[in-house]
């Protein structure tokens, strides 16, 4: 239909004597200029216009959805290429530290663990496993993490985070018992099972929805652990859900259905990131690490406090030591309070970990 130019004079109310000036105005001033002959025709065009607008809106939604699918495919492509890179690097630089600390003296064991933590090539099996299990998860923290790994590898820098630490300790100590506080998607837990599929693991988590961008569940994590172990193996993992400040004391006191082993080979603390909450978790678990066993403490570079809403307990709790404001302070004060451990402190990049080996 050709556009019609209307001017105000054309739409002026006609001076008629029909007794219905509004009808005369619509018939003479509007419908005729739009080549319409009835109110029904006008209503039909209105419906048609509404349908066209709805169709345009639906098309816009489809275009937006297609763009999201394209972005998702691009991300999958990048992650697959990254996965292939880490696999190729791993096969080109095979590691030979398996079992190397078993049967060694404490001093020799500490030397071996220190050498392996500083070895950048250990990042290859760690990154490859993460991408094998989680590259379709949509969790952008994974891309951030693997970018740090790549930088450390390219710069040949001594860097270890909680996942690399767990992978190394699981192999060099042949860990049979493993406890972690803060499981989320199971990234560290998977390293423990890949390092030793026979490990008996205990996972403590509150399963806070959408924690740090995405959150797993006991069913999700158990499924991933099944993929992490050798074919035909069943991962031995116990899930203790709830606030660790409540559940840990009851667990070690034997008050839960899940009973603790006499001691642990490796324990990871990666839960409450407030200074006081982290201190509670650390002091709860340290007495249960065997001599020659290891503690891993995540995010030791954090200078801000996080997680205050979770720093509550049904049990009597001590106050924090003086001058303990953040996780940097927690790691420093821990070394002052427990000199019977040998400490390794990662000094580079973010998301870094501290490792402590119990000497006596």
Please, could you describe this protein's structure?
It is a single chain. This protein has 360 residues and is α/β, with parallel strands linked by helices. The protein has one domain (91-358): 3-Layer(aba) Sandwich (Rossmann fold). 46% of the residues lie in helices and 12% in strands. It contains eleven helices and seven strands. The protein has helices at 21-31, 39-92, 106-118, 123-134, 140-154, 162-172, 187-195, 218-228, 244-252, 275-285, 327-337, and strands spanning 177-181, 200-205, 236-241, 264-269, 289-298, 341-345, 353-358. The chain has a seven-stranded mixed sheet with strand order 3-2-1-4-5-7-6, with helices on both faces. Strand 1, helix 7 (187-195) and strand 2 (200-205) form a beta-alpha-beta unit. The chain is elongated and about 110 Å long. The model is unreliable at 4-16 (pLDDT under 50).
